[in-house]
Amino acid sequence: MSDRGAPVADCLFCRIVAGEIPSDRVHEDDQVIAFRDIAPRAPTHILVIPRAHIASAAELTEADGPLLGRLFGAAAQVAREQGIADDGYRLVTNVGRWGGQTVDHLHLHLMGGRPFDWPPG
Ligand code: 5GP
Ligand code: ZN
């Protein structure tokens, strides 16, 4: 088994982190990157991800608290920079098949620019 957080060769988002696959980045720091979703479901649809490979929110523990603070902090900063903070926005992380997860590298969907229904479909 690989070290937790180490890059996974066949992980799409690890490859985006590494720059092997191009992305439209709107934020990057030492722990987090954010880039535009390739198939946006809202006028603003950005993925906020840790550089470290974590398969999903189901893998998180208390030790990830500082990283999660950085992840949510980056999402809030990007929301302000993208001009969607005042009206409000949706932050979502899908887990597993029925949750709608298609990429097994933890990511927050930052979506804004229109109102959202609750509960989601
Ligand atoms: P999930 O379905 O796992 O919650 O979210 C994965 C998201 O990644 C989807 O919204 C999908 O459109 C996006 N996505 C898949 N492949 C790529 C890609 O190559 N580049 C970018 N920027 N987004 C992608
Ligand atoms: Zn990964």
H and E string: HEEEHEHE
Distance between the termini: 36 Å
Rounded mean pLDDT is 97
Largest sheet: 5 strands, antiparallel
Instruction: List how many beta strands DSSP finds.
Output: 5
- The helix tally amounts to 3
Rg value: 14 Å
Bound molecules: guanosine-5'-monophosphate, zinc ion
Helical percentage: 10-25%
Structural class: alpha+beta
* CA-based shape: globular
Residue fraction in strands: 15-25%
| Unreliable sequence segments | none
Strand order of the largest sheet: 1-2-3-5-4
Helix and strand topology:
Blueprint lengths: L11 H7 L6 E4 L3 E5 L7 E7 L14 H17 L8 E3 L3 H4 L8 E5 L9
Bound molecules: guanosine-5'-monophosphate and zinc ion.
Descriptive labels:
binds zinc ion; five-stranded antiparallel β-sheet; alpha+beta; binds guanosine-5'-monophosphate; single chain
Quick rundown:
The chain is an alpha+beta fold and 121 residues long. The chain has helices spanning 12-18, 65-81, 96-99; strands spanning 25-28, 32-36, 44-50, 90-92, 108-112.
Describe, in plain words, how this protein is organized in 3D:
The protein has 121 residues and is α+β, with helices and mostly antiparallel strands. It has helices spanning 12-18, 65-81, 96-99; strands at 25-28, 32-36, 44-50, 90-92, 108-112. A hairpin with a 7-residue loop joins strand 2 and strand 3. The chain is globular, with a radius of gyration of 14 Å. It starts with 11 loop residues before the first helix and ends in a 9-residue tail after the last strand. The structure holds guanosine-5'-monophosphate (5GP) and zinc ion. The site of zinc ion has 6 residues, from helix 1.
